[in-house]
Amino acid sequence: MSVSLVADQNRENVVKRVLIKFNTSILIMPNAQSLKRWKKWGKKGIFICVEGLDGCGKTTQTKLLVRRLRKKGYNVIGTAEPSRGEIGNFIKKYCLHGMKRVSSVVEALLFAADRFEHVEKEVIPALDEGKLVISDRYVYSSLAYQGAGGLDLKWIERINEHAMRPDLAIFIDVEPSIVIQRLKPRKSVMENLETQRKVREVYMKFVENGELVKVNGNKSKGEVADDILRVVLRFLAKAN
Q: What does the angle CA 126 – CA 114 – CA 88 come to, to the nearest 5 degrees?
């Protein structure tokens, strides 16, 4: 048996153990206490997410946005998905950088489980303290990436019912052919031209229905940062 085959089998076994350990039944409906907390979350803090294809500059722009908002006096924290938690670290190691992509169903369940922990342990506590939370990726990434993998968007939404709706969701739009050129030689299993094209198609559906605010990511880093800051400050001014 080849080394790669053994590695794939080991990864699949670990995936099964993780899904059993974290009991994916929690993804169907959160408990009553959590639902009460999620319903009132918007009364204090503000939640913003930044989305985009791999290589669009999203992580860099999220960090710049956090720094610039802090300079303007906002009580802001940055976070990301996959999260820094146990499931998030598992996803990074075994799913994004495995020998091959796991099934879209397994991906969707793992990301939803990680999002459950991310929201419960990081996002809600920060919002309860009145902070501005900026997340590098959120539920739209699951809809775009696993949706591009052939899964029904309604099903992805259902297993992410616990994922609170962000106040503002920004999509940094860069052509798939451009992001592929930007990516490092050691790409993740999702960083190929065909996947990125399909992912952008799903993202654009949410831009068209008004759920995502599109920002042109083909400009210079500074110009993109300025555009994102303008969108956020305009939103915050209306929110206040």
A: 100
Global pTM value: 0.83
Q: What are the tens digits of pLDDT across the range 134-164? A: 999 999 999 999 999 899 999 999 999 989 9
169 with 214: CB under 8 angstroms? no
Q: Can you list the domains of the chain with their CATH numbers?
A: 38-239 (3.40.50.300)
Which of these ranges, 1-5, 51-55, 94-98, has the smallest mean pLDDT? 1-5
User: ω before 166 within 30° of 0 (cis)?
Assistant: no
Q: Using CB atoms within 10 Å of the CB of residue 187, give its burial: 0 to 12 exposed, 13 to 18 middle, 19+ buried.
A: middle
**Secondary structure (3-state) at 122:** helix
| 131 in Cβ contact with 76 (< 8 Å) | yes
If you search the block for the tokens 């500074």, which residue do you land on? Answer: 222
Q: Which amino acid is at 35?
A: L
- Give residue for tokens 């009460």: 36
d(CA 147, CA 205): 11
Structure tokens at 110: 């793992």
Give me the count of residues in the chain. 240
pLDDT at 38: 45
- DSSP, residue by residue, 132-199: EEEEES-HHHHHHHHHHTT--HHHHHHHTTTSPPPSEEEEEE--HHHHHHHS-SS--TT-SHHHHHHH
Burial pattern 190-199, b for ≥16 Cβ within 10 A else e, equals: bbeeebbebb
Which SS3 state, helix, strand or coil, does residue 109 take? helix
